Amino acid sequence: MKKLPIGINTLDTIISKDLIYVDKTSIAHKLINTSGRYFLSRPRRFGKSLFIDTLKQIFEGNKDLFKGLYIYDIGKSWARLEV
User: In whole angstroms, what separates CA 4 from the centre of its chain?
Assistant: First the structure.
């Protein structure tokens, strides 16, 4: 059985250690492709830092990290975005 990623807030650590990860890349994809301003309001310890790290990994173009997740096969360009 996979373990919970308690206290871990980086996607690459969760994937490399084969811990439980709830795929929220569909939400990230929608957020990226919809214009507007967003306020990420969630209770303490509810994954805000992990979600921000997931967005960072998407923008850095780390496609291999997302193998098996929603965003991997949707035709997204995986070129690194310079901000």
Answer: 16
pTM for the full predicted model: 0.84
DSSP three-state, residue 15: helix
Does a structural domain hold residue 11? no
- Whether 59 has a pLDDT exceeding 70, the answer reads yes
Q: Is 40 helix (H, G, I), strand (E, B) or coil?
A: coil
Structure tokens at 1: 């059985």
How would DSSP label each residue in the chain? -PPP-TT---HHHHHHTT------HHHHHHHHHS-S-------TTSSHHHHHHHHHHHHTT-GGGGTTSGGGGS----PPPP-
Q: Which domain holds residue 48?
A: 20-73
Does residue 45 sit within a domain?
A: yes
Q: Check whether 83 has a pLDDT greater than 70.
A: no
